[in-house]
Specification:
953 residues; five-stranded antiparallel sheet; 31 helices
Length: 953
């Protein structure tokens, strides 16, 4: 569906063929990957400067040429296109792994723009990365976050950066897995909220959107479970394996791992596990607490329940040793764990009834426990990472809510509504109050959004439907902000544009999935509430949406399968496990097992803290209540027979709250594209890239930026920013003269040299002035040039004045150095400068009490616990250096960062790059004792840097 009104081709409309063959080049077998080198385009840093007609062919050639020239970032006006060339395939994609990567000027410009806008307006900013799975969103987000610390956070040596880097290293192993399309696929969406005040970063917060729970118990064929399981098996010592009851287990005899891809690089996994273990220590999380839970999850998969002989209602446990091992790891008795898994409590009209589960139900509850333990462990680590005490924040606790920032404030009043706002159930007054609360809560942050990318696995399950809904929503947000707002603003203010942007509107697809009553997710919730079946659900969906072109029936026809035409392609979903996955429940019989009275493992009790508190608020325990597998806050728990929400309801609510946050922020878009589908370094697959630039609507964006009016500014804002271009005497400085002043400023650009073909246009509307991207860039360039010229003039005048003022004293100093005899003669005659006036005779000397107040000194010493008579001794120098998380003793090998002495004087000179030996701390403050060429030197520590170690975390 598009926004065009008829099929007639309007003037300025760009039409392109849907056939790839029309744009293909003849492959050159001599080139790497069989790719032909495009003849031009590597020097085009912004696609709005493309020569000739704007076509898909031209865009693709320019991206290919820049890719061959190792330029992976290209602008489309203010929007950045990033092509993932897989240059660092083995990178674990953590914040620490980017420390050796050179800063990209284009990414740095995005960060600088976000910081500038936030500091100038106080308005929250959001950098939104979007693209298919494997397009490099996580890697780019880590680079952005590192550059944000460089610009506003004090750099990578600050405690805040180290804590955040440790948190990402821990979460990366817990939240990523190998899929068929991406070996480092993020299964957790991140929104990194960086609080900024006065241009300085003072607090960071990670919001996680955990979704892919089924992977814990059943990864797809040719895919892997979460990375941490493989890293743990490779990195645990023999003693730790024995403590965790994992001795003798491997990828091939653990049920939760052997059903997926079992290939492993043990050396790499062991190295990453050691880094993960060290980072847990940085966050203050006990290592053994976490690995006990993870080992228990792995061993749970080997606990199998089978039906007993005929006539018996209880089930039999196969491999009872694994059950005992899991119970030991979780701090409960085997009998209590078996009872919690195999028995159910029901509330039948107020009467409590006990029953036994069959083997199938017992195995499902076992899987629910495994998913709950894993999800809650991740949520606990996120809470801990967000509760670290930093400047401007208070010290949180391990049990604080993981999303207590803007998202949870909005979540209190949020309901399950359509993502596009077409079927909300709240009144406009309540929604206004909610939006105002969110706006005030989100003032002063810069957010980096790295959400799920579009996926098409085979088969696709409920988690993949939610992931693709997220991708659709982010695409709709981009369409609304870039295309729809521009078109509607021009129409509302009577502005005619020669370019008609023909973009694909994906609202029908979003409504198909998420509308309030007839959406696929709402119908799934209804089917879960009536205990329906997958076949019944698919039948109702096809009947409800029989005329919807976005829903199609796959061939051959399967009663449990359906297809959806997404913005990025067609996906076939298998609904066999939709209902079980969506229910997302764990019974209170099992939760009660982890109460502190029966569980001696405090970490496991903490994982179910809110549920246990709600459960034991009543005398009857258990009483037939179900809880979410994912953690819920105490205020959201009800005492009914069903949990508060299903998996899809919870995900949809979080997505709505995220959108409400983004609506109140100024977005900066980065469109990520994968260069090929096989993760091959330096290979540009034109067919793969073409499909992505079509789905991301890159050509439509170039068309709008090159020839339309993508920017609009209020007259007052335009004058405030660009008034420095015109002479102050030419501006009227009155509200009634705003339009005239705008004309005056724009007239200063007449006669400027411009690239051929660049569209530089503007139009005056009712409340705004509309600018083309070319004109905006020219205005920014002239403004910067004007301010730079003024700054140079001011600095030159000040430096000249300062030098002239210092010259007499400097001249005398130089004369004293070069002519000491003159100094002696003059000193005999008299001083060179005017003698200091002597005090008047008879004036008493100043009393000591006039300079200091002993009472204040005594109060200060009492306040800080100091003894005025015996001041505290100066602490001795440490016999070690702290680097990262490691203590390094002396002697050390360091490298000179700059020459010492810097003026070249001295008996021994150290040059930049020289390797020296540090033997200890110097008695001089901030100095180290360095031995070089049989000489000992006292060198400031800023002149030295440690040699990089092979393992960084």
């Amino acid at each position: 569906m598009t926004n065009k009104k008829n099929n007639k081709m309007p003037e300025g409309h760009i039409h392109f063929s849907e056939t790839w063959n029309a744009f293909s080049w003849t492959p050159d077998p001599d080139k790497a990957g069989g790719e032909a080198m495009p003849p031009w385009g590597a020097d085009i840093e912004d696609l709005i400067h493309l020569p000739g007609p704007l076509t898909e062919d031209a865009v693709l050639k320019a991206l290919h040429a820049r890719f061959i020239d190792n330029h992976t970032y290209t602008n489309v006006g203010p929007i950045l296109v990033s092509v993932n060339g897989y240059n660092d395939v083995g990178n674990p994609l953590t914040l620490s792994s980017t420390r050796s990567v050179p800063l990209s000027p284009k990414l740095l410009r995005v960060v600088q723009e976000a910081v500038r806008h936030q500091s100038e307006t106080g308005y929250p900013q959001a950098v939104i990365l979007s693209g298919t799975s494997g397009a490099g969103k996580t890697y780019a987000s880590m680079l952005l976050l590192r550059q944000l610390f460089e610009v506003a956070g004090g750099g990578p040596e600050t405690d805040a950066f180290k804590h955040l880097a440790a948190a990402f290293t821990v979460l990366r192993s817990l939240g990523s897995a190998k899929t068929t399309s991406n070996s480092e696929s993020s299964r957790i969406g991140h929104f990194i909220e960086v609080q900024v005040t006065d241009g300085a970063l003072y607090r960071t917060k990670i919001h996680c959107y955990f979704l892919d729970q089924t992977r814990v118990i059943r990864p797809l064929k040719n895919e892997k479970n979460y990375h941490i399981f493989y890293q743990m098996l490779a990195g645990l010592s023999p003693e730790e394996r024995v403590k965790l009851n994992l001795d003798g287990y491997n990828l091939h005899n653990l049920s939760y791992l052997k059903c997926g891809d079992t290939r492993q690089d043990e050396a790499e996994d062991a190295t990453r596990f050691q880094a993960w273990k060290a980072c847990l220590g940085v966050l203050g999380i006990p290592f053994m607490d976490v690995v006990r839970v993870l080992a228990g999850v792995l061993l749970l998969g080997n606990v199998v329940f089978v039906d007993s002989c005929v006539g018996s209602v209880e089930v039999t446990v196969q491999k009872e040793a694994e059950l005992n091992a899991v119970a030991s790891l979780l701090g409960v008795t085997p009998q209590a764990l078996l009872r919690g898994i195999t028995s159910r409590t029901h509330n039948a009209r107020g009467q409590i009834i006990k029953s036994y589960c069959d083997a199938n139900m017992s195995n499902m509850i076992r899987d629910s426990l495994a998913k709950a333990l894993y999800c809650r462990t991740v949520a606990t680590i996120v809470r801990r990472a967000n509760s670290l005490k930093r400047l401007g924040s208070t010290l949180g606790t391990l049990s604080s809510d993981s999303n207590e920032s803007v998202h949870n404030q909005a979540e209190v009043a949020s309901q399950h509504a359509s993502t596009v706002g077409t079927a909300g159930s709240k009144s406009s007054k309540s929604m206004t109050a909610l939006n105002n609360a969110v706006r005030h809560a989100t003032d002063g942050f810069i957010g980096i959004l790295d959400m799920f990318g579009f996926e098409d696995p085979k088969p696709s399950h409920l988690e993949h439907l939610c992931i693709n809904l997220c991708s659709e929503t982010m695409q709709h947000f981009y369409n609304t902000h870039i295309f729809k707002s521009s078109i509607e603003s021009c129409r509302d203010e009577g502005i005619h544009s020669d370019v008609e942007v023909d973009y694909v509107d994906n609202v029908p697809c979003i409504d198909l999935i998420s509308s309030l009553r007839t959406g696929l997710l709402s119908m799934l919730d209804v089917e879960c509430s009536i205990r329906g079946s997958a076949e019944g659900y698919i039948t109702k969906v096809k009947a409800q949406h029989r005329s919807n072109s976005r829903l199609f029936e796959p061939k051959p026809i399967e009663p449990r399968m359906f297809g959806i035409q997404h913005f990025a392609g067609r996906v076939i979903y298998d609904a066999t496990d939709f209902l079980d996955t969506n229910r997302d429940v764990v019974p209170d019989d099992l939760v009660a097992v982890f109460h502190k009275q029966s569980c001696n493992f405090g970490f496991a009790t903490h994982l179910f803290g809110s549920e246990l508190k709600a459960l034991y608020s009543s005398d009857t325990v258990p009483r037939g209540v179900s809880f979410r597998i994912s953690p819920t806050s105490h205020s959201d728990l009800l005492n009914g027979d069903e949990p508060v929400s299903t998996l899809t309801q919870d995900f949809h609510t979080r997505l709505d709250n995220l959108l409400r946050t983004l609506v109140h922020a100024r977005p900066h878009f980065i469109r990520c594209v994968r260069a090929n589908a096989t993760e091959t370094p330096q290979r540009f697959d034109r067919a793969v890239v073409m499909r992505q630039i079509r789905s991301l609507q890159v050509l439509e964006t170039v068309n709008l930026m090159a020839g339309g009016f993508p920017h609009r500014m209020r007259f007052k804002a335009f004058l405030s920013r660009y008034r420095v271009i015109a002479r102050a005497t030419d501006l009227r400085r009155g509200e009634e003269k705003y339009v005239e002043d705008c004309h005056t400023i724009l007239s200063c650009l007449e006669g400027k040299p411009r690239p051929p073909g660049l569209v530089v246009t503007w139009a005056i509307g009712k409340r705004h002035i509309f600018l083309s991207e070319g004109l905006r860039q020219e205005l920014e360039a002239v403004r910067w040039e004007t301010l730079h010229r003024a700054a140079v003039t001011i600095q030159s005048v000040w430096r000249g004045y300062h030098c002239r003022k210092r010259w007499p004293a400097l001249k005398r100093t130089l004369q004293a150095v070069h002519h000491p005899s003159i100094t002696k003669v003059r000193s005999a005659v008299g001083p060179l400068s005017r003698p200091r006036p002597q005090p008047i005779a008879g004036t008493p000397p100043p009393e000591l009490t006039d300079k200091c107040d002993h009472k204040i000194i005594a109060q200060t010493c009492t306040l800080f616990g100091l003894d005025l008579e015996r001041p505290p001794p100066v602490p001795p120098s440490r016999p070690y250096t702290v680097a990262g998380n490691t203590k390094l003793g002396y002697p050390q090998t360091r490298v000179m960062k700059m020459p010492f002495p810097d003026d070249g004087s001295g008996e021994v000179s150290l040059l930049k790059g020289d390797t020296v030996t540090v033997v200890g701390a110097s008695p001089r403050r901030g100095h180290l004792v360095v031995e070089h060429s049989s000489h000992s030197l006292h060198v400031p520590f800023q002149f030295l840097e440690l040699k990089p170690s092979p393992l960084t975390i």
